[in-house]
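Please check what follows.
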Amino acid sequence: MREFLTHPRTLKLLSVVIVFSAWEIAGRVPISPAFPTFTDTMGALYVMLTDGSMLKAYPETLKPLVIGLLISGVFGVGSGVAMGLNRSVEWFCAPIFIVLQSAPLAALIPLLVMTYGIGLTAKVLVVCIMSMPVIVLNAFNAVRHTPVSLTEMGASFQGRSRDIIMKIIIPSASPLIFAGLRLGASAGFIGAILGELLITPTGIGDLITFSQSKADYPSMYAAIFSIILIAVLFLEMLERAEYSLFRPDKRVS
């Protein structure tokens, strides 16, 4: 019994039940007329799924999100690893990503709209600006802080540079690299919704603003809930990919 209660899946399920119960109670009090109950929100979510409005909106939201995350993941990890391995690349690239990470996105969106219009390119760039700096800087720090004893051991066994990178440095750095990918993906989801709210009202962003404009708060919260749910499932997939590829010892049976 104790093993069941302390199992990671049991604790995760318990935390979800507590959050949804608190949401239901807060909606019934109510803390605000604009805060619906959990059951009302799930009812609105069911209606939006069955009438097709949500399924029609998601392709518009996922297109810039997927493109932006793919670019950020591939280019971000590659740049971070290159910066960690080479001081010249670090000095050239690090200031760019540090500035991008600290820049307020809301101030950059008007510039992106003026330069690239209100189409797909501007939204993809918003996702990249939000997610790429986090991915790059985490990958850079992960590679740079690989224990020297490991690389020296590889060199002592006459390992080639490529083998040392692929078989020692990357596996050793993988926890922090994947942590950066998860943080970058979270920021990418935020960027995708910000793009739809601030650039062009399409997809889930359009559902949120339209529901808010007619005070249909259960539908508004249902749209927000759905994008959070997809983000959580995507982060869970990233975590499982990390454990499968680099950390089999962390798999939950």
User: Anything to note?
Assistant: Residues 24 and 38 are 5 Å apart (CA to CA). The chain is about 85% helix and 0% strand. The first helix runs from residue 2 to 5.
